[in-house]
């Protein structure tokens, strides 16, 4: 039996086999994709800039709904009233552009992939985008109001809670990123199974250690309260189980039936 020939991969823009391209040519192509990404971010940033204050009002709604009538948000720095909406505006531009950013990265690595890898990579790419947005939505609509309610409810009666707008923004962005990355666990689990790093049987054997690790990680990346830890650790565990379930389905399809 003749060995399977390695396909000659050609970059569609340069019409040149990838193995014959110098490293400088790869960097030029990468720069082209990065220029497109930066260009879109700049356009989105300036398009969203007139709505920066309204965006911050939307972000602060969960906190303002929990504050007592006599309390309000404050700015402890002269530039905070400008910088906080400015930072949020850039974050929103980045989130809106995320599918385009991932597509540009996909377009860069696509010529170097085999057809089977392309067929697997595209669904995983689309799934990772959807799961990242789902994690941010979960953080904003479920986790954030619950955590804020907990912190405000345990504050002493003699203390009027007044949160600095920059501190609140940093807290929210950290929470969004943590939950966004957490919701990538099923995708990561599937990738590890597909490339053969682990099998579903190995993951099942290590399940109890993985569950403990979920709570251990959540303890360090969330605010120092038990509610935040539980609201992150339990989704991490359930998301791992989701990835494991689909991993089993994929492995079963690979097993030939008698």
UniProtKB/TrEMBL annotation:
Q: Which domain of life is it from?
A: Bacteria
Q: What is its main location?
A: membrane
> Which residue ranges does UniProt annotate as crossing the membrane?
34-52, 90-109, 121-148, 168-197, 209-224, 230-250
Entry membrane topology: Multi-pass membrane protein
Keywords from UniProt, A to Z, are: Cell membrane, Membrane, Protein transport, Translocation, Transmembrane, Transmembrane helix, Transport
Q: What InterPro entries does the record tag this protein with? A: TatC
Q: What does the UniProt entry say about where the protein is found? A: Cell membrane; Membrane
Q: Which residues form a coiled coil?
A: none
Its annotated function is as follows: Part of the twin-arginine translocation (Tat) system that transports large folded proteins containing a characteristic twin-arginine motif in their signal peptide across membranes. Together with TatB, TatC is part of a receptor directly interacting with Tat signal peptides.
Which family does the similarity line name?
A: Belongs to the TatC family.
Stored PANTHER family: SEC-INDEPENDENT PROTEIN TRANSLOCASE PROTEIN TATC, SEC-INDEPENDENT PROTEIN TRANSLOCASE PROTEIN TATC, CHLOROPLASTIC-RELATED
State whether it acts alone or in a complex, and with which partners, per the record.
Answer: The Tat system comprises two distinct complexes: a TatABC complex, containing multiple copies of TatA, TatB and TatC subunits, and a separate TatA complex, containing only TatA subunits. Substrates initially bind to the TatABC complex, which probably triggers association of the separate TatA complex to form the active translocon.
Supply the name of the protein.
Answer: Sec-independent protein translocase protein TatC
Where does this protein come from, organism-wise? Acinetobacter chengduensis
